[in-house]
Amino acid sequence: MENIRNFSIIAHIDHGKSTLADRLIQLTGVSDARTFRDQILDTMDIERERGITIKSQAISLPYRARDGKDYVLNLIDTPGHVDFSYEVSRSLASCEGVLLLIDASQGVQAQTLANLYLAMEHDLEIIPVINKIDLPSADIEWVLGQIESELGLDPAHHLACSAKEGIGIGDILEAIVQRIPPPTGSPGASLAALIFDAQYDLFRGTLIHCRVFDGTVKSGDTIRFMFNDSVYRVEEVGRFLLTREKRAQLSAGEVGYIIAGVKTVSSVSIGDTITMDEKPCPKPLPGFREIKPVVFASIYPISSDDYEDLAEAVEKYKLNDAAFLYEKDSSIALGQGFRCGFLGLLHMDIVQERLEREYGLSIMLSVPSVRFRFTLKDGDVLTVDNPSHYPGPMAIEKAEEPYIRAAMMLPDRYLGSVMNLCIEKRGTNSNLRYLSPGRVELIYEMPLAEVIYDFYDRFKSMTQGYGSFDYDLIDYRQSDLVLLDILVNGEKVDALSQIVHRERARARGVHACDRLKEEIPRQMYKIAIQGAIGDEIVSRSTISAFRKDVTAKCYGGDITRKRKLLEKQKMGKKRMKMIGSVSIPQSAFLAVLKSDTDS
Amino acid sequence: MAEMPPAAGLYLHIPFCRSKCAYCDFYSMTDTSLIPRFVTALCNEINQYEEEFLEFDTIYLGGGTPSLLSLEEIESIMEAIWRAFTILPDAEITIEINPADRGRSELAELNDLGINRISIGVQSFDDRELLFMGRRHTAEQAAQTLEDAHGAGFVNIGLDLIYGLPDQTVRRWQSSLGEALRFDPSHLSCYELEIKPCTPLGRRLKRGDFASQNEDTQRDFFVRTSELLEEAGFVHYEVSNFARGMERASRHNQKYWDHTPYLGLGPSAHSFRGARRWWNHESLDDYLHALENGMLPKCGSETINRDELRMEALFLGLRTRKGIDMQQFKNRHGIDLMEIKGSELREWSRAGLIEIEGSHIRPTRSGMIVADALALF
Q1: Quick check: A552 contacting B, CB < 8 Å?
Q2: What's the total number of domains in chain B?
Q3: B222 and A551: CB-CB below 8 Å?
Q4: CATH code at B314?
Q5: Are A515 and A592 in contact (CB under 8 A)?
Q6: Res A411 pLDDT > 90
Q7: pLDDT in tens, B175-185
Q8: Are B71 and B219 members of one domain?
Q9: Spatial distance between the Cα atoms of B92 and A194, rounded to a whole number of angstroms
Q10: Residues A357, B107: Cα–Cα separation, whole Å
Q11: Helix-, strand-, coil-residue percentages of chain A, each rounded to 5
Q12: How many Cα atoms are found within 13 Å in the side-chain-facing hemisphere of B54?
């Protein structure tokens, strides 16, 4: 155990986390040039393209240190977005130390700070690393000043590197060995292993990624998940190099995987504790929380012929994403589909993109919603995450909506505009605290529904990327809720309906009508778009009729060129959904949620 | 498929122009010294198709500017045609004429060669507009040519006009149109000025020398043209074409629109038969080179599949007043339009875009101008 180090790299986005991971992997010789692809830990295409890590991963790096001894350095990668902050915290809980990476020209940023706090919560050894020192704009002195004043860390203990150029990587490996404490725990004690990730493997079922804190686990053992008391027989344990490496056992201090015939990742809960069925540990490891989706939307195939394909894709996708929930749903406007639950809007985006990309589907998402709670006059309590299940005003005794506690960190020069935004979003019970001169932490309690409606985009643009935002669900509070319907050409489009606060309904209706007017292309005749609460029309816009085509002659018999042009247009039209006789593009549904400030 | 195939159409592309018009992106060249070589090559090409296409009932000499050719050259082409093909007795034989290229006596000689329809590229009766478009004739010359055409014995006289020029008002266009009617044409093609990026006008537009007309005004031009000419007794039989009675409609162009076979000869010309379409080299050099080396000047071809043919039938049909006979469409293309698109069709009918009469759908005036969009359903 003396020779094991468990660590993560944490950083603001684009400060070079994945590149540093690549270099560490290269330098320790786990991968040769042939197997090496840039940013090895981000395996999904979307992660590469967006440059963010969605699923956390782990890798064991064998390293002979300058003291001549052999070490195993377990690098646990963390996802980098607020939707996945719980997964980040579980990854950090599996470590003893972190590399806190800071860009030499950009300095300390919002996520640097947010990540630092997370690491401090877990009592981790923090090694500040200044990256990108090769850049002409690098200003190391200034960053050192920030490390002291804004992070409250000792700048004398920093390291400097250029992950891109491979400068300073050796020193980082040495610092990991010397400064991060080895894990503690007893291989002989009752098994306690923390699950920080789970991945689906087509042949072996679920791969449980875990950190063993106490005890030992080997194939043939009967283990128990403490959260739901389910019991499995271990088939294989091992660790991650670039591929899986089977081992005889995993014991206290080690990071690796367990294969135990678990059919789906949904049977595994991130943060849960694995113990021995026969001899369980006295209590689970701290910090467990059940992941619950908070944002709900329906997915429909653009062509209803694709429903069976979508059903298959959703089922397969679910195997690898425990946080994603779905059930059958059908819409009058959009036909058969699935009602889905997501951790947040980014998570929703990612699911949509992966379904389209990995399964070749064209899909459409309805307007996202939170889960509301209605107490009916007959005493029944109804939770509604789908506006089409809204019980109707006459039946409702009491309406409630989920509230969050939003924690924001930002430079104080943006304070005024951010506070206005929070007030606009029905924020209450604010709390303000200076972290350091010029930098504040702002707390608000806000309805979650307001946050999923364009809050994050506006917050980010207001603070020019210097603001960080995190939230926790706190409770349900009474609220005056109404159902806002959208009618296109007189026909109600149920997938565009929203449950909203009465005071905001009219404005939301006006906004929806305006945005739809921009998104829906002109059709053969005039189309009215209306927002309605019950029978009352609260907003209206009109899309004037498509006026004319190019009347060019088909000259000299060159019909082919014209046909190809029309075929192209027709392909574009196939990406739209026919509602009655109006074709509505996919973008229209999400546009209803986007604020005017992005356009 | 037992029915006799209808007689085919023959198109000849004469790729020469004395100067390029400012809006034109068709293939043409100004080096007229190549004309004799071209005529030989064209006759050669005609001969190569001797066996394949048997009967034609329309011939169309277009361009370019066919009127740049001498009478002798036109005569030798016509002779080659008569020798190689069967031309039905009542064939429609058209030539495009540029005003000021031919006097009355020469027009009469064209008539003697069997050419019975002329299409005059007037474009406008406003000298400023003609200058803007880079035409090399004046309104007065156009008027003269029209009178000469009548004098030369032509009864089937068509003229081409262009509307929607930058700054042009609907009112000014109407007076051009009124001027055209004074010469009692039997056919009018009225095209909206389309400014393509790779033309002189396209470059000027990009430089900001002028702005193009907005969509609503363009539509006004279209609607007004149609109204005015229908009042004057013309049939608006295709998006851009008007005839004094359907018997004066261009029989040749109709073949493009209803999948009748046609043979196109000369650079860049397209041909169609059965499910095949093929086309010639665009450049005169490549065209001459092929024929002078004993090869056909084909540069591409495609076989049109069932779906493509159906789509063409739809968008071509909806460009014409005759519209689509749904029964015939079903027989040919295997799809019952009413069965699969009935609700859209009825919706369009309510919106005044089409008329449904028995098994016929016909675009109305408002429907014609969005014919492409209608065909996309």
Answers
A1: yes
A2: 2
A3: yes
A4: 1.10.10.920
A5: yes
A6: no
A7: 999 999 999 99
A8: yes
A9: 88
A10: 65
A11: 30, 35, 35
A12: 4
